[in-house]
Amino acid sequence: MDASTMKRIQSDPNYQKLVTERKSFGWTLAIITLVLYYGYIAIVAFAPSIIATKVSGDITIGIIMGVALILLSIVLTGLYVLRANSTYDDLTSAIVNAARIGGKK
CB neighbours of 43 closer than 8 A, spacing ≥ 6? Predict the structure, then answer.
């Protein structure tokens, strides 16, 4: 890809929107995930009695929280995939089409 094509793509409003939205959404999800994981570890470190509380038989609050954490991570990943398959793919297609049209002129 030559420099003029690269500059044309980088100046495309769809490209700028894609980069901004993807970065913002990605960081938001990353921060949520880190807060959840570090929060869980903080509870294990500073309030182990809460985690050790039995709910039913051998099932403790810690096990429930751990499973919930894994499920929330899957949900957050699913949210990213949904956005990537809709908004981000549409923007990418628009960028590619604009680059093709611009390259033929």
Answer: 50, 51, 65
> Hey, how many other C-beta atoms are within 10 angstroms of the C-beta on 95?
20
Domain containing 53 equals: 20-104
Contact 61, 51 (CB under 8 A): yes
The answer as to whether 11 is a domain residue is no
- Using alpha carbons, select from 32, 43, 36, 45 the residue that is nearest to residue 80: 32
A 10 A CB-CB count for 35 gives: 11
Cα separation, 104 vs 68, whole angstroms: 52
Give the mean pLDDT per block of 10 residues along the chain (105 residues). Answer: 83 91 95 96 94 93 96 96 91 88 61
Number of domains comprising the chain? 1
